[in-house]
Design goal:
Length: about 220
């Protein structure tokens, strides 16, 4: 979700469910705009490209934090996607998983806010990689293999009758992520093609049964 899509989505919210919350005071779209400006201002040229912060803390006034509390999780999720999209458009690099938090600064008055940011590598030293589910849930792929299937003990449990009990596995291979079909009955597809083992690229669509996930490296 780029800044334009973020703004259009917020327009719908302003006219709908959260109309009273958005009336007057700090607007979430202002946070989105300042977030992308923060990325631009803090960019650093590195040997492999241009690096931008991947950890952001948005400091809000007590009043604004209270206003946003009922939909804070959804707002943070959309801001993360906005940051990822802006990075792709500008060809920026993250050295770790993108994380956004909101905190209260008691000294701030209503409508005033600021953003602290830093470049923070993942503890395992690997680039950030994740799967995004159909409902927007993000599953981080770290050092340990990530198994998806119908069994309750799977890391990602899906209730699709076309999926096998242990359907597929995602694991690291250096800086890359590889998907391995675990002998599933109906197969695993990447961008529509059946696979047994394949290295994933940013934006690949993984289909298991009738459910699709998207792979992201930012």
């Amino acid at each position: 979700m780029g800044l334009f899509q973020f703004e259009k989505k917020l327009e719908g919210l302003v006219e709908g469910t959260f109309a009273k919350v958005f009336k007057g005071g700090l607007q979430p779209v202002e946070i989105g705009r300042k977030l992308t400006r923060e990325m631009d201002l803090k960019r650093q040229v590195a040997p492999n490209g241009v690096i931008v912060p991947n950890v952001y803390v948005i400091k809000l006034s007590p009043d604004d934090a209270s206003r946003f509390s009922s939909f804070q999780a959804a707002l943070i999720r959309d801001l993360v996607e906005t940051a990822r999209k802006h990075a792709r458009q500008e060809r920026y690099l993250f050295v770790g998983t993108v994380r956004i938090d909101m905190d209260v600064d008691e000294e701030l008055t209503s409508s005033r806010f600021y953003i602290d940011s830093e470049v923070l590598a993942n503890k395992d030293g690997l680039p950030g990689a994740s799967l995004v589910g159909p409902d927007g849930t993000r599953y981080i792929i770290a050092n340990a293999p990530l198994v998806i299937g119908r069994l309750p003990e799977c890391d990602i449990v899906i209730s699709d009758t076309k999926a096998s009990r242990r359907h597929a596995e995602f694991h690291r291979a250096g800086n890359d992520v590889v998907i391995l079909d675990l002998g599933s009955t109906n197969g695993t597809r990447v961008n529509g093609a059946l696979i047994t083992r394949q290295r994933l690229n940013d934006g690949d669509e993984i289909t298991i049964g009738s459910i699709s996930f998207y792979f992201q490296v930012l």
